[in-house]
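Hey, can you fold this one?
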Amino acid sequence: MKDYLSRVGKYPAPARLALFLLLLLAVWGPIGLPLYWLVPDPNWAGILAMTGLYAAFIFLARLWGRYVYGQPQILRLYGLEFSRKNGQDLFGGLGLGLFGLLSLLTLETLLGWLEWQVPNLSGLPLVMGEGLLVALGVGFAEELLFRGWLLDELQRDYSPGVSLGANATIFAVLHFIKPWEEIIRTFPAFPGLVLLGLTLGWAKRSREGRLGKPIGFHAGLVWGYYIINVGQLVQYSGAVPAWITGLDNNPLAGVMGLLFLGAIATAMYRTSPPDLAK
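Sure. Predicted structure:
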């Protein structure tokens, strides 16, 4: 078995990705899938199943690194390290994502496209706390998966530019797994997801391959979106179409969001090493 796994590293990237996902399903399926029938509350069933799936992913990724590539510290290679620099990157990215999103909304306020609502001060701290936990969980999970494991697998076969482009496209496509009618209705948000994927990839490369900054930036965007929507802090005026301000009240799913991400992506690109920025 070990001899076979050592040969897997020489397979083409699509074959390696497919094999990894099949192994992940085999590890998680017997435990995770029954939860949807055994746990009465659908929300808890989903949370437990996804938590189990991610635990299985990390377990399998470590075995994959050890036996397929001979790299026992594969998570560190992905950019997941517990260091002061990575911690600073995390908090810096968190602040950039949160305050960048608030700056975008402030600009739209000045243009008369939205109005801020009086918040429920007694409930706002709870919303902010819940939002931070959700945001950090989403940022950690998606960045380790996409900018960690997936990007590493692609870079083993393709150039940095092709790898990052494919990574961002896959990131966007997987966020569009929904009914066909919803895909058509929300398709204007697709370019924003691709651009977000590129931005997060350049954020990682700008920090010598560490994941702290993309995790933080991703989490900052999710945190801001959570606070604004769950806290019901803004009301769009309807002065301009939703494709400008963002579909479904998502500030990044419109033209203004694209411009916002474009500016940050440009900054990330310019701070990436020249040989990796292309």
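The longest strand covers residues 114-116. Let me know if you want another pass with a different chain boundary.
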